[in-house]
Specification:
59% helix; globular; mainly alpha; single chain; three-stranded antiparallel β-sheet
Amino acid sequence: MGKSQIPMRNKPRAKKSTGKISERDQAMLDIQHATRHRARVTAALNEIVARQLGLTVSDLLCLDFLQEYGSATAGQLAELTGLTTGAISGLISRLERFGQIVATRSTTDKRQVIIKPVPEKMQWFADIISPLTKDTLKLQAKYSVQELKTIGNYSHQLAKLYQKRINELLKKDSDPTQCICCRGANCPNCP
């Protein structure tokens, strides 16, 4: 095992309980474990790819979003990343300097900036993702159409739950009474 590899268990450590866990509960625990594991390795992959390209993870997430959807407003990118509008402005300026995106004023609303990727400058993305895409397609080929539909539906529903939680956290982030350490009580860490 390489220095940076962490040994992984196939199943989560069972919590101590007085009774036997049902097959359904065990399956749900397995999904929770797999979801957490996938989130960790995805975060690590994003960090490594961004670092190798001289980008931030937020840069990478925005470029990935633009690759998939074609364009977005600065406000949409701010919402996607949880960054402030000021931070998004800096991100847009940086990616424009690198030639990865173009930013233009909306023709219908001059206050909006429309961000689009520069396709010929995005080949690096395909080069990095291509091996993972091939492996993913091989993995997906092992499942029936119905299983793939179930996995797809679960993944979409999970993403919606994540987005809901992101929105809740962003609201708390702007509310000084929602300090994570004390939930609004007087404490030395709060402003």
